[in-house]
Amino acid sequence: MTLTGLCERRSLLDHPCFYRSAGTRWGRVHLPVAPNCTIQCNFCNRLYDCVNESRPGVTSRILDPAEALLYLDRLLKARSDISVVGIAGPGDSLCDPERTLETMRAVHAAYPDLLLCLSTNGLNLAEHVDDLVAAGVTHITVTVNAVDPLIGQRIYAWVSINSMIYRGLEAAQLLLSRQEEAMSRLKGRGLTVKINSVVVPGINAGHITAIAEKAAEWGVDLMNCIPMIPVQDTPFECLGAPADAEMVRIRALASLHLPQMYHCRRCRADAVGLLCSEKS
Ligand code: SF4
Ligand code: SF4
């Protein structure tokens, strides 16, 4: 608090995902306001919703923006260790951009001291960068699973733009070109940017270094290599998860190009608390 009684905004360095040093003091809360997605990844199935399941894309319920603010009000009365409010699905946070922007604006107006963070696949990001900055967003994560459309076409079943469905190579090319445009705008506005790359054995596991190299060219600040969790009833169900030793090797190679995040908890879309807490 300042002498005038106004809250100062948390330092950008107080984001526990982007800065490991903040992880023991500061926690995050995800507001699950984004149920739908603009693309279909071959490892993702958001139909399963189990309170015992902890992985991205899972939530106990969807909140509308007003409910999300009420939930946050109650949460912040109960705990003082939250530094960042994020929207990370369970779908894509910019599939229904007005829901997300309305939520961010309301949170920023009520709690200007908190950092705001967003995760997205990047398809609809470029056109909303200015709106997100105006809403107070400081940290963005874009999931980039391929920077070669020939590999991307094996990961994405389809991409939807303006109610048109694209498949195959065209879908992967469209997604990549929009991600590239978004990166340029994000860095132009001075946002802190992380990429998440889901490591899929036999599909993109040998391609992660190339992603890191390209992301470094884009000016990305941090990379989070996430081992795929094989999920029931998805095309990649039988591929299995990458071995721990393989992840160590992949991260070591990627770190030659970009700083790596090693403490990701693969959180649910309604995660809350310190990254080391049991509930996350
Ligand atoms: Fe699932 Fe996220 Fe891929 Fe959408 S972008 S299909 S929510 S993993
Ligand atoms: Fe942070 Fe990883 Fe959890 Fe996202 S999934 S909030 S990057 S720890």
Please explain how this structure is put together:
By secondary structure, the protein is α/β, with parallel strands linked by helices. The protein has one domain: Aldolase class I (TIM Barrel), CATH 3.20.20. It contains seven helices and ten strands. The protein has helices at residues 65-78, 97-110, 129-134, 149-155, 168-188, 208-218, 244-254, and strands at residues 27-30, 39-41, 82-87, 115-120, 137-143, 156-161, 164-166, 192-199, 222-227, 272-273. The strands form two sheets. It has a seven-stranded mixed beta sheet. Strand 4, helix 3 and strand 5 (137-143) form a beta-alpha-beta unit. Helix 4 crosses helix 5 (168-188). The longest helix has 21 residues, at 168-188. The model is unreliable at 1-5 and 48-53 (pLDDT under 50). Bound molecules: iron/sulfur cluster (SF4) (2 copies). One iron/sulfur cluster is lined by residues 37, 39-41, 44, 46, 57, 89, 91-92, 121.
Short description:
The chain is an alpha/beta fold and 280 residues long. 30% of the residues lie in helices and 18% in strands.
Number of domains: 1
Q: How would a crystallographer describe the biggest sheet?
A: 7 strands, mixed
Number of strands: 10
CATH structural architecture: Alpha-Beta Barrel
> At the fourth CATH level, what is the homologous superfamily?
Aldolase class I
Helical coverage, percent range: 25-40%
Rounded to the nearest angstrom, the distance between the terminal CA atoms is: 28 Å
Alpha-beta content class:
alpha/beta
Shape: globular
| Radius of gyration based on Cα positions | 18 Å
Strand order of the largest sheet: 9-8-5-4-3-1-10
Number of helices: 7
Extract low-pLDDT stretches. Answer: 1-5, 48-53
Q: What is the overall pLDDT average?
A: 89
Bound molecules: iron/sulfur cluster
Protein name: FeMo cofactor biosynthesis protein NifB
Pfam family, one: Radical_SAM
InterPro entries: Aldolase_TIM, Elp3/MiaA/NifB-like_rSAM, rSAM, rSAM_sf
Family: Belongs to the radical SAM superfamily. NifB family.
